[in-house]
Amino acid sequence: MSRKPIIAGNWKMNLCQSEAKSLFEGICSFVSNYKATELPCVVIAPVFTSLCCVHPVSCDCGCEGYKLSVSGQNCHWESSGAYTGEISCEMLKDAGCSYCIIGHSERRQYFSETDEMINKKAKACLSCGLTPIICCGESLEQRESGVTDEWISSQIRAALSGISSEDVSRCVIAYEPIWAIGTGKSCDAEEANRVCAMIRKVVSECSGQSAADSIRILYGGSVKPSTIEEQMSKSDIDGALIGGASLKADSFNEIIEKTMKTCSCCV
Ligand code: 13P
Questions:
Q1: What is the pLDDT of residues 53-107, one digit of tens each?
Q2: CATH number, residue 242
Q3: Is residue 267 part of a domain?
Q4: Nearest-CA neighbor of 3 among 262, 186, 255, 216?
Q5: 262: which of 36, 59, 127, 239 is 20 to 30 A away, CA to CA?
Q6: The pTM is what?
Q7: Which is catalytic among the residues 104, 106, 113, 138?
Q8: Half-sphere exposure (CA, 13 Å, Cβ side) for 44?
Q9: Range of the domain at 100
Q10: Where does ligand 1 bind, in terms of residues with CB under 6 Å?
Q11: What's the number of domains the chain is made of?
């Protein structure tokens, strides 16, 4: 089954407005050479204060597709209220977002996000029309003690709990082994694909085969132009969530270009 790949750049807590604007322009000038039907879904996730410096880029060929979409890096599940420092899904939509990253390991680790909170965030995203990019992944300790599959499967079951199969098929999951994030040590593509296939099986058990066939599962963790082709050649990897290499237009654009060469579903 063909799933349109997603290449998403998580800018994390980097780039002030002028820097965000110039990176956005560098990506725009690259994607402007193609039609949306030729490109993977290209997504950028700047910090909240730079959302005003970027915008979604629609295709000009009449296909109604987007050449570039914008994502939040986090959201709250309530739509408004006394939650100092938080941002709602409605506010992200209002600022031009159509995606939101949720449950990133950095948020789980440094901001004590729980599976229950991530489930509420996923539901809030879906009910206001944002596509949640739900992150999961194991630590080195968990991998070494042999509990990777069990851990990830419990993260996925909790994140998708109470969500209809139809909505699950609209979600995106990002498998990001914690030990591969920012270390330069990408997970072996064969192993990343094995875990992504295991995640798809868990989705089929919770939400049915059709949702499992449609949901896009990304790999994240030290993705670079030199790793993307092998990663994208794997059957269960539908794209990448990229940190460091998304902060420079040259490397991010090269990843997009190599994805286009690898995936027949972009053509
Ligand atoms: P790096 O690509 O820098 O390893 O970051 C991955 C990541 O955490 C994306 O969300």
A1: 999 999 988 888 999 999 999 999 999 999 999 999 999 999 999 999 999 999 9
A2: 3.20.20.70
A3: no
A4: 216
A5: 59
A6: 0.97
A7: 104
A8: 35
A9: 6-262
A10: 10, 104, 176, 181-182, 220-223, 241-245
A11: 1
